[in-house]
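Hi support team,

I submitted a single chain yesterday and got back a structure, but I'm not sure I'm reading the token output correctly. Could someone confirm the output below corresponds to the sequence I sent? I've pasted both exactly as they appear in my results page.

Thanks,
R.
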Amino acid sequence: MRLYDISVGVSPDLPIWPGDPSLELERFSRIEDGDIANVTKISCCVHVGTHVDAPYHYIEGGIGVDRLPLEVLIGRAYVVDMTKSEKIDAEVLDGAGIPPRTRRVLFKTKNSALWEKDERDFHQDYVGVASSGAEWLVRKGIQLVGIDYLGIAPFEETIEPHQILLKAGIIILEGLNLSQVMRGRYTLYCLPIKIVGSDGAPARAVLAGV
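Hi R., thanks for writing in. Yes, this is the structure output for that exact sequence:
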């Protein structure tokens, strides 16, 4: 079995969504200063790097990340190669060859190349799932959808696709790096931090395959 770490490294150099607070890491206890241990404080938005969106992110009264079902966050997933697509809409998904009964789908797009280039700036022209694509995923019974940049939806229409997916109870996994992963079936292990009542949380996401 081969493991693929599809999470991005969290550091102050990581791109963040425009308007979100910057990520800060402060080592306030230092062995070299005579302290008995190194201890670091972190300050950031919960939607930093690889992270999960809970329904509460866009739905008033929606559940928080601590109540997301583990049986959806862990299980068989299908990686779809969308590297030639500029937007993931219903028409594109009709021809994507996603197997029947797929419940977890991860979209590999040209976005993943940005992580490989160690880009520090946020790119507004990333590839995302359009509203018609979100409706397609709902109709097909998808339970979890992931993408390889900081937003599931295109930057210019971020609200509606989020609302469509989250109202349907679909878990959104954002900020993946799928550059080393080929199209096909894998087992996904995604465990967001259990922050009580939060609209989202950073996660470590791993794929297992042959």
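A quick pointer for reading it: The helical segments are 70-73, 90-94, 112-116, 131-139, 159-167. Let us know if anything else looks off.

Best,
Support desk
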